[in-house]
Amino acid sequence: MKRTILIFIFFLTGLSSLTAQKLCDGKNFAFKSGEELEYKVYYNVSFVYVGAGKVTFTTRLVQHKNRPAWHVVGKGRTFSSYDWFFKVRDQYESYIDTSNMQPLTFIRDVHEGDYTKYNKVSFDHEKGIATSKNGTYNTPKCIQDVISGIYHARNIGFN
Fold it and tell me: Is the confidence at residue 1, as pLDDT, over 60?
């Protein structure tokens, strides 16, 4: 039994280091500048799904912090017919370094009913920190924000 547990631990350790390596070695082959994706958002009312809004993602190649970067913008909104009930106008942006798929800047601008939140995070991967209006934080190697993480995952070869 102890031998089986040790083998399992070594297996997990190897798997986690392989996964961490894949997170750091990002290359893009899954999307290009000008890509636009649109998703319909549904609300579940007693097992009936009602279309309540949409989310769009756009991708552009830009210059950011003196380097080529993917500027990915995700916008979510309720349909105007639902605004009287609960109005949502959210925007998430990520500037992603084209050389390694690591985020440079992340912006969150949320408007959901009476709740609003704005934050801008700048990443310094060499120093291992992220800075926002709330402070400076230590970050692990190869950290991703929510948008860059989605676009990074699109490039993982699962074969």
Answer: no
